[in-house]
């Protein structure tokens, strides 16, 4: 059971998404360290002279306070808790991808302090180590949701994964050692599995294998509806 947001609260957090509400306000999807994800209305935040306009934005660490007992809280205050990250181009799209994963996969009012910390690390890794940061966050997300991947032992028999071997990864069980490659299976190098297990991912092979594995694993829980950030990326790159 997730923590329950009471009549009032305060916490560190981020805006995951914002959209207009009435003439001058915003509805915010907030993600906080100790209270999890919930919606709040920021009254007057869209007024031209509102101090909140430039603050209540994604990727800006915030000190938040709110009140209200309904499903949608009322934001009392939102102040910067640190500098906003200067994201642009692919790094910005990658950051929105992280937010979309959280919106799609996290339950309301279900706090995940360790995942909150992993989110901060992933944002800080953009744009210098974008792919590595994304893969490590995806791994942390799956672990927090209870869908952690078996990476360092075989699914059947428990033999240790060997770096020089190849493995067919079965998503609901784990890696199985194979002697022959097959195009209809998710084949990964043992060295890549061990690199992901150790949070390393320092070479092109392990990064490419980790991306294929994470995309396949996340697809089990995202359902048939494609992520909008993936659609935008595909449109921009022609893939």
Secondary-structure map with pairings?
Layout (H helix, E strand, L loop, with lengths): L7 E14 L3 E8 L3 E7 L19 E6 L4 E9 L8 H17 L7 H13 L4 H15 L21 E5 L3 E5 L8 E3 H8 L6 H19 L5 H10 L2
Parallel strand pairs: 3-5
Antiparallel strand pairs: 1-2, 1-4, 2-3, 4-5, 6-7, 6-8
Outline the structure in words.
This protein is an alpha+beta fold. It is 34% helix and 24% strand. The protein is built from 6 helices and 8 strands. It has helices at 89-105, 113-125, 130-144, 190-197, 204-222, 228-237; strands at 8-21, 25-32, 36-42, 62-67, 72-80, 166-170, 174-178, 187-189. The strands form 2 sheets. It has a 5-stranded mixed beta barrel with strand order 1-2-3-5-4. It is elongated and about 65 Å long. Mean pLDDT is 92; it is low at 1-5.
């Amino acid at each position: 059971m997730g923590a329950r947001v009471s009549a009032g609260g305060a916490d560190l957090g981020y805006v995951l998404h914002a959209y207009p509400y009435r003439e001058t306000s915003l509805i915010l999807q907030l993600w906080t360290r100790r209270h999890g994800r919930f919606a709040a209305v920021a009254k007057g935040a869209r007024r031209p002279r509102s101090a909140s306009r430039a603050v209540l934005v994604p990727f800006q660490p915030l000190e938040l306070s709110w009140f209200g007992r309904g499903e949608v809280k009322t934001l009392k205050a939102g102040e910067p808790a640190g500098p906003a990250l200067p994201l642009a181009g692919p790094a910005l799209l990658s950051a929105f991808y992280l937010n979309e994963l959280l919106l799609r996969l996290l339950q309301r009012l279900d706090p995940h302090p360790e995942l909150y910390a992993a989110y901060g690390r992933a944002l800080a890794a953009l744009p210098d180590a974008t792919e590595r940061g994304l893969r490590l966050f995806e791994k942390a997300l799956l672990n927090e949701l209870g869908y952690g991947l078996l990476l360092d032992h075989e699914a059947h028999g428990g033999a240790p994964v060997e770096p020089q071997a190849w493995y067919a990864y079965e998503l609901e069980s784990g890696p199985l050692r194979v002697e022959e490659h097959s195009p209809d299976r998710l084949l990964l190098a043992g060295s890549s599995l061990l690199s992901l297990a150790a949070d390393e991912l320092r070479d092109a092979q392990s990064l490419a294998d980790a991306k294929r594995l994470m995309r396949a694993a996340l697809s089990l829980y995202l359902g048939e509806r494609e992520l909008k950030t993936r659609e935008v990326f595909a449109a921009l790159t022609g893939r």
